[in-house]
From TrEMBL:
Organism: Fusibacter ferrireducens
Top-level division of the source organism's lineage: Bacteria
Keywords, ordered alphabetically: Membrane, Transmembrane, Transmembrane helix
Name of the protein this chain belongs to: Sodium:glutamate symporter
Transmembrane stretches, start-end: 6-24, 36-53, 65-83, 95-118, 169-189, 233-255, 267-284, 333-351, 393-412, 424-445
Keyword Transmembrane among UniProt keywords: yes
InterPro entries in UniProt: GltS (IPR004445)
Length: 453
């Protein structure tokens, strides 16, 4: 019998890259100062390795891993139990709503900025008629991260937008780095000028180096099953595996029956696999509750599974990028990246400064999310709130739930080329106007007197 090791070799390479990232973070103070995660350092090494010509490994293997761990990370997040916060729930929900509206507004702003950037570089001859759609794609890399950039990119490639997945992954990777290199100095400036709620604290060596000492380790979660029956980690993975299994059949049904005659749209259930997956996870959670087994899902263990997926997602996505495919569009990409970074920073900062409380903390959360993902938002928040004493971390959870509604435009994004550039631009403008109006109606655009938390 012949065994296939292709996927496991790719997994082994990613594991080596992650471990190399851990060693680099531990050894070099510059990486500690900027709090760069091991997955990003490993991803940079992977990008160099895969484009060096020293390996025969194909980027397709890493793209496949990126696709699946992205879906699993979202589904695992939905399975994680949510603990109610008592009397602060109203404030937390309002904070989460602000974040969701901001993120949905930025989604439109970034897409239009990217399209204008490509139009400009085409007009002045920096690029040779690069598709403007690659500019629209930028927001799915920045605001929605690697997995969505790959999903939308694959869908747009089916409409004839060549190399869209590769460009999308590049946006997502560069966005995460920009979140750190812009967000961390801003956080330091805010602390220096006493603009943060939590007084500045010395950052522990364990956090800087990214490793706990032998006498300062913490629990990863609680065991909810007896080991002579099934290991707790196996149980949690089994529940997630069941959800993924059921989602496949749901996506297959939607693709081959509901959308069978819709042409290119029939790929949407698999391009947006995480979306039906989220609803399947909600259904499974209700089934567990009916069976009186909901207590067997431990937040700590489930969070570790989510963290595992996110780490491999980041390193795999950066290793999937082929630099040679980026070269024809490099000028447009660089102009787009710089323009979006500036617009995102100043727009979110302008709106955040109108908040009566936690303006710096909420700005850092959303700037991180809109340039990378929820993980980068938490990373920037930790610069000013290292022990998560403010409600902002919980607001990020609420934000991800509300964004399913406010960010509904991303549901049709995979089919955007079918609408055409003009129609899609008008849709984006309309979405931006709606989000701005909602921000005003909920009182988020009114300058209020700052108050203490």
């Amino acid at each position: 019998m012949t065994y296939s090791f292709g996927l496991f070799i790719a997994f082994g390479v990613l594991s080596l890259l992650l471990f190399a990232g851990v060693l680099l973070r531990r050894a070099f103070p510059i990486f500690q100062k900027w709090m760069i995660p091991a997955c990003i350092l490993g991803g940079i090494l992977g990008f160099i390795f895969i484009n060096s010509g020293l390996t025969s490994l194909e980027t397709s293997s890493f793209e496949e891993i990126t696709y699946h761990v992205f879906n699993l990370s979202y589904m695992s997040l939905v399975l994680t139990p949510f603990k109610k916060g008592g009397g602060k729930n109203k404030s937390i929900i309002r904070g989460g709503l602000w974040m969701a509206l901001i993120s949905s507004l930025i989604l439109s702003v970034q897409a239009l900025t990217g399209a204008l950037s490509y139009g400009l570089t085409n007009m002045i001859g920096l690029t040779k008629q690069a598709p403007v759609w690659l500019g629209f794609l930028a927001t799915h890399g920045f605001t929605q991260g690697t997995g969505q950039a790959l999903a939308v990119g694959n869908s747009w490639e089916a409409f004839g937008i060549q190399n869209a997945p590769n460009v999308g992954l590049f946006y997502a990777s560069v966005g995460f780095l920009m979140a750190l290199f812009i967000g961390v100095p801003y956080a330091n400036w805010a602390k220096k000028h006493n603009k943060t709620v939590i007084p500045e604290k010395s950052v522990k060596t364990g956090i800087l180096k990214g490793l706990y000492s032998s006498d300062n380790q913490i629990s990863a979660g609680m065991q909810t099953t007896h080991s002579d029956n099934i290991d707790t980690l196996s149980y949690h993975l089994a529940i997630l595996g069941i959800c993924y299994f059921l989602t496949y059949f749901l996506a297959f049904f939607l693709s081959n029956h509901v959308l069978a005659s819709s042409g290119a749209l029939k790929v949407l259930p698999f391009s947006l696999f995480f979306l039906p997956g989220m609803f399947v996870c909600l259904f499974v959670k209700q089934v567990l509750k009916l069976l009186k087994l909901d207590h067997t899902i431990d937040p700590g263990i489930q969070s570790r599974i989510t963290g595992f997926c996110v780490d491999y997602l980041m390193v795999a996505s950066m290793t999937s990028i082929s630099f040679s495919l980026l070269l024809p569009y490099l000028s447009g990409i660089l102009v787009t990246v710089l323009a979006i970074g500036a617009v995102t920073f100043f727009l979110i900062r302008f709106i955040a400064e109108k908040l009566p409380e936690l303006s710096v903390e909420r700005f850092l959360c959303q700037f991180g999310c809109c340039m990378g993902n929820t993980a980068s938002g938490l990373l920037l928040l930790r610069q000013v709130d290292p022990d998560y004493e403010t409600p902002c971390a919980m607001e990020l959870v609420i934000f991800n739930i509300i964004f399913v509604l406010t960010g509904i435009i991303y549901l049709v994004a995979p089919a955007a080329p079918k609408f055409g550039i003009t129609t899609w631009s008008l849709i984006l403008i309309g979405n931006g106007v709606i989000m701005a109006v909602l921000l005003w109606l909920f009182g988020f655009l009114k300058s209020e007197q700052k108050k203490e938390v």
